[in-house]
Amino acid sequence: MAQFFSIHPDNPQSRLIKQAADLIREGGVLAVPTDSHYALVAAIDDKHAVEVIRQLRGLDERQLLALLVPDLSELGKLARVDNRQYRWLKLAMPGPFTFIMEATREVPRRLAHPSRKTIGLRVPDHVVLRALLTETGPLLSSTLTPVGETEPLQDAEEIRDRFGKALAGVIEGRCPGEATTMIDLTGPEPVLVRQGRGDASRLGLIA
Hints:
Blueprint: E1 3-6, H1 14-25, E2 30-32, E3 39-43, H2 47-57, E4 66-68, H3 75-78, H4 83-92, E5 97-102, E6 118-122, H5 127-136, E7 139-143, H6 156-163, E8 169-172, E9 181-184, E10 191-194
Parallel strand pairs: 1-8, 2-8, 4-6, 5-9
Antiparallel strand pairs: 2-3, 3-7, 4-7, 5-6, 9-10
């Protein structure tokens, strides 16, 4: 059964954060609150954990997975970022945005879009999740929407009851319950793909 973590939303206990991080390092998949919806997270270099996420979500290799990073300094290792793109990223992060960008060779091939070689990148604005990311480094992420359903799960206890055997841990917390705003940065100008919780006008875009 998944380990259940009750972590303070403003002052995360380092002991619990390290315990959760250890589960990820051991190959586990965790359900964590974010600044949008609950998400499944795992180490980006753990093939088995990635497959668990795809199975729980019913995703194939053509469907984009996102990478969560603790801050902008990590982005250059995972995505090709020029000065212009970096300025756009600084306007929006941390926050409820997902940016589609060209992946670097540091990203395992199975995580990038097979034809476009792109990934989704996020720097979430969530205290507990940022603390976890600081401990673990970048994590693979996918919104926790069960197979055959259209709405993401939002309740930690329901997640544990339904998926406790497949997950290593569940972190209790609250989510706003609104999708991220998705922006494509692979072209000469940013393109709004999906309007969500993030204010696209911060980048001069209009929904």
